[in-house]
Design brief:
This protein is of the alpha+beta class and 501 residues long. The protein contains 14 helices and 13 strands. The strands form four sheets. Strands 7, 8, 9, 10 and 13 form a five-stranded antiparallel β-sheet that branches. Strands 2-3-1-4 form a four-stranded antiparallel β-sheet. Strands 5-6 form a two-stranded parallel sheet. It binds delta-meso nitroheme.
Length: 501
């Protein structure tokens, strides 16, 4: 690495004893940012850590939060920013033994939101969540969490989600209700995760059995922050009231009361400040997706064939791979706009003087585009059904053989995670009534081309060709559900006072 004036100064100052080592550590910590989390250009700025404010001092830099961040697990409010993340799904074998170990071995390691934000030197973050079957096993079914989807589990919802009642693409561990809980381990290295997992497993001993695990990781180098199809993912998550200073809400960001994401007043008292975690292992058929784009270029002949294929992909998602929204830059990518978090989410799908007829207002961005289906902004008069997405890509990069054959050989995809205070209003609503509904947001919209599911049958999608908005594209599933589960991510005090006693 080339020495800069700054690093040369630090080095000289250190060697000559001009500044004490502790100060240098501080400088490095600030320069390095947070070790566990990514912060690519275009993502919302990292929330500022709360600071301990000495009596009488002004609270500069502190989050004026009304949420108990030291009691809320760290994954819920932060979004899609993990460098490496392991999902460890387990069954509880011996409830009494597990409860003892939950209190003595796991609780001390559970990372709160405050800890994640404050501790620059944190090397591992641990979160834990339970399925209904897990709560039953721990004898915590009363008073219940008043969420029917959670109660019945995701397998019994597979037909509603478009995966088919037989869930034939699902992995066997997700079929049924044998998964009782999931441990999420995030770090900057897989070695840290492996070491922690090893010590957890030995501490938990025979109180649990491993049922399934999935290792996720941010993609390498300049693809960091991009999911496997190549699109920057993690730009648009709601601003949760009380988490950060209201003035930090970004233009175009949905603003939601904390009660849409966290159980505040709606659940039983013990569940306050917890959140429902929806997990889905979503395989992505990347070579097949790329082939579809290559075979169906759209847009002006003045563009190259490749640019016209990229335009189709951008219209399927609603953003270019860089993250720039097609609504703001319909014909070509604009990486500078993409990098600017004060502009890259600032649109409503409405344009003054725009023709809001059946075809007029999807000229810039199709009604079917993934981000328009999953958050219709001003297409609807009320803003609702919000989730915080916290997933991580998994699986290897596409190999040369896969790219040249256009056929997936090794599984890769998105370890999809989202948080909400009610599953039927959050994830399930978006998947079932928006993404899978051909008539949402109006007739002849078709499926969401990214996640829309038609029980495994090909899906019709309209609006993708800017020169013929009625043209029908029929496509296979490029995202295949391998299954998942509904979990509840409790507060730290709920783990201490309810789940482990
Ligand atoms: Fe999506 N993708 O790469 O195409 N998603 N998503 N998602 N998604 C978004 O805004 C993707 C999935 C939402 O506020 C972006 O962060 C992929 C599920 C919502 O404007 C990209 C998969 C559900 C938004 C992707 C997948 C959602 C959103 C744009 C699966 C819910 C915010 C970047 C493999 C049921 C919309 C960004 C807004 C954005 C992709 C899954 C929902 C690039 C590949 C299952 C609410």
């Amino acid at each position: 690495m080339k020495p800069t004036i700054f690093s040369t100064f630090i080095c000289l100052a250190l060697c000559t004893g001009l500044i004490p080592a502790a100060n240098v550590d501080d400088v490095r910590a600030v320069k390095k940012g947070h070790g566990i989390l990514i912060n690519p250009p275009g993502f919302p700025p990292f929330p500022r850590p709360s600071t301990t404010v000495p009596a009488g001092a002004t609270a500069t830099g502190a989050i004026p939060t009304s949420l108990p961040l030291d009691n809320i697990q760290s994954d819920i409010l932060i979004g899609m920013r993990k460098k490496k993340e392991l999902f460890f799904f387990f069954g509880i074998e011996n409830a009494a033994d597990f409860k003892t170990k939950l209190k003595s071995e796991i609780l001390p390691r559970v990372t709160s939101t405050k800890k994640l934000l404050d501790d620059d030197k944190l090397t591992i973050a641990l979160n834990i969540a339970f399925s209904q079957a897990g709560l039953n096993k721990l004898d915590i079914s009363e008073p219940d969490l008043r969420d029917t989807e959670f109660k019945n589990g995701q397998f019994s919802d597979s037909a509603n989600l478009g995966d088919g009642a037989d869930a034939k693409t699902w992995l066997s561990p997700f079929k049924g209700t044998s998964i009782h809980g999931v441990i999420l381990l995030a770090s900057d290295t897989i070695e840290n995760i492996d070491t922690t997992l090893k010590s957890l497993k030995s501490a938990l001993g025979s109180s649990i059995t491993e049922i399934h695990s999935l290792q996720g990781a941010a993609r390498p180098e300049h693809e960091e922050g991009h999911e496997h199809f190549g699109f920057l993912d993690g730009i648009s998550n709601p601003f949760v009231a009380g988490f950060d200073d209201q003035s930090k809400a970004l233009p175009g960001q949905a603003q939601v009361p904390a009660g849409e994401i966290l159980l505040r007043e709606t659940g039983p008292g013990w569940a306050k400040d917890g959140s429902f975690l929806v997990f889905r292992q979503l395989q992505q058929l990347v070579p097949e997706f790329n082939k579809f784009l290559a075979d169906h270029p759209v847009g002006p002949e003045s563009l190259t064939r490749d640019e016209r294929s990229q335009l189709l992909g951008a219209r399927m998602v609603g953003r270019w791979k860089s993250g720039a929204p097609v609504f703001l830059t319909p014909n070509r990518d604009d990486p500078e706009l993409a990098r600017d978090s004060s502009r890259n989410n600032d649109f409503t799908y409405m344009l003054a003087g725009d023709d809001d007829s059946k075809t007029g207002s999807q000229k810039r961005c199709p009604f079917s585009a993934h981000i328009r289906k999953t958050r219709p902004r001003d297409d609807l008069t009320t803003s609702q059904h919000h989730i915080i997405r916290g997933g991580t890509p998994y699986g290897p990069e596409v190999s040369g053989i896969e790219a040249s054959s256009n056929i997936t050989k090794d599984e890769r995809g998105l370890a999809f995670v989202c948080y909400q205070s009610n599953i039927a209003d959050g994830f399930k609503f978006i998947q079932k009534f928006w993404a899978n509904n051909e008539n949402f947001v109006r007739g002849n919209t078709g499926f969401d081309p990214i996640i829309g599911a038609n029980l495994g049958s090909p899906r019709d999608v309209f609006g993708l060709d800017p020169d013929d908005l009625t043209r029908k594209f029929t496509m296979m599933d490029f995202v295949v559900s391998k299954g998942g589960e509904y979990f509840f991510s409790p507060s730290l005090s709920a783990i201490r006072d309810k789940l482990s006693v």
